[in-house]
Amino acid sequence: MSLVIEKSPDIAGEFEIRPMSPVLAAEVIGLDLRRPLAEPVRQAVYDGFVRHQVLAFRDQALGTDEQIAFSEQFGTLERHIARNRGSDNPLVHTVSNLGADGLPSGKVNSTSWHTDKSFRPEPSLATILHAVTMPPDGGDTCFANMYAAYEALSEADKAALDGLRVIHSWELSREKSGQKATPEEIRDAPPMSHPLVRVHPDSGRKCLFMGEHASHIDGWPMAEGRALLARLESHATEERFVYRHRWQKGDVLMWDNRCLLHRADPNFDAALHPRVLHRTCLRGTAPG
Hints:
Layout: E1 6-10, E2 13-19, E3 26-29, H1 39-52, E4 54-57, H2 64-71, E5 93-96, E6 124-133, E7 141-145, H3 146-151, H4 155-161, E8 165-168, H5 170-176, H6 183-188, E9 192-195, E10 197-199, E11 206-208, E12 214-217, H7 222-236, E13 242-245, E14 252-256, E15 260-264, E16 276-283
Parallel strand pairs: 3-4
Antiparallel strand pairs: 1-2, 2-3, 4-14, 5-16, 6-14, 6-16, 7-13, 7-15, 8-9, 8-12, 10-11
């Protein structure tokens, strides 16, 4: 893959989409996300999003209402799980290592590979994450390319996965991490069955669809299904498929949950430095 800079018309000039790695991801230079995007610009951004899977919009300063307005230009916002904390708006989730006292707790969440909202009937299309306060170093977000992981499988492995479905469950993913979902959370997010190999609705390419919320293979014994998912995740998150985003002040990341896994890297002193981000999610379509 050649790292070619793409230039597109903006309302008042041009913006650039610059690939950041041969694996995935590009940075977007020259847009102010506080302003509505003209339709040609919006379409160019969405096309770049599908092509690169992660877009990093540089030098942004969004309030929560502005983040919602930007996000809604690309689809319908998804509510967060019933246990959402840190915001009085159900469409904005504060991702934070802060404790109830407002100080760094030493704990970083979402460090396992996952795709957002995969336990929903219509899993997330995209996540938009805005860096509010970040540590001086570290606190990276890592992404694994599920297109490339699928395409690297042998033809025999691809044939063996064809037609398999996976149970995605918030309750069972909490159990796997040693936590317990509340009755309200279980009612809010009952288990869902989705294809293990899905066809991306925009690109038409096949990719693996799994992660932390993927509990087991539908119709298989629990242990056997989880062993297969663990083997696939180990393969899919090899370094050759992974892009690591090192956050810069003012970054807004928009990524494609339909063809990526992601995780937070706790590679900073989480008991000393705050890490606070605002998250919105766009509802997708039922996987096919």
